[in-house]
Write a structure and sequence with these properties.
With 90 residues, the protein is an alpha/beta fold. The protein has a domain at 5-63. 36% of the residues lie in helices and 13% in strands. The longest helix has 16 residues, at 37-52. The radius of gyration is 15 Å and the shape is globular.
Length: 90
């Protein structure tokens, strides 16, 4: 079964899955790299870990930016991290 949550129909999502969400920044890394380099790396690492652990599903990557103009992107990430820390269900 696929571990990619974004490719699963809801009827194929395991009961009470343990989900992992790749989290990476979206920022300039020079003229030769895409803006989502860190997000791509986080996605690859998350998928590698999920492939070794049973019952894991991988959510679509969450890209965030740290500059003042992208603060609206960081707020949902802070909310998700806070919920995970307290054990709340998303």
């Amino acid at each position: 079964m696929s571990t990619d949550l974004s490719r699963l129909a809801w009827t194929f999502v395991p009961d009470r899955p343990f989900g992992m969400a790749p989290l990476g920044s979206c920022e300039q890394r020079g003229p030769h790299r895409p803006l989502d380099t860190d997000t791509r790396i986080a996605d690859a690492v998350t998928r590698a870990v999920a492939g070794r652990l049973p019952g894991q599903v991988v959510a679509p990557p969450i890209a965030y930016a740290a500059d003042e103009g992208a603060r609206l992107l960081a707020e949902p990430v802070d909310d998700i991290v806070g919920r995970v820390r307290t054990g709340a269900r998303l």
